[in-house]
From TrEMBL:
Annotated protein name in UniProt: Crumbs homolog 3a
Location of region: Disordered: 76-96
Originating gene: crb3a
Organism: Danio rerio
Spans traversing the lipid bilayer: 46-71
Signal sequence, renumbered to the chain: 1-22
Key words of the record: Membrane, Signal, Transmembrane, Transmembrane helix
One BP annotation, GO: regulation of non-motile cilium assembly
Amino acid sequence: MIQQVGLLAGSFLLLLVRNVSAQGENSTMSSFTTSSPESTGPNIVAIVVPTVVLGLLAILTAVLVFLFCVVKKKRQTEGTYRPSAEEQTGARSVEAPDALKLPKEERLI
């Protein structure tokens, strides 16, 4: 998400820099002149390409999150419950813990 915001901000700054430099070059010309389609081409590309890429990334992220939620839910609700098998395999692998030591025996003085 942070990369998407950075990409969007970078493309916006690139667009601003191009517009400022283009306005500085055309300051001697009349303000009523129209720009040629060739000069607006890169500006449109600078807007459209990051927007399309960010849109596709957002859609892909939404689809992946949805699939993850569906798979997680199916794992919770489907399957077989066999507690006897779990008890048998669990009983074999569980050993008495060595960490629990008996307290010292109490003696009379």
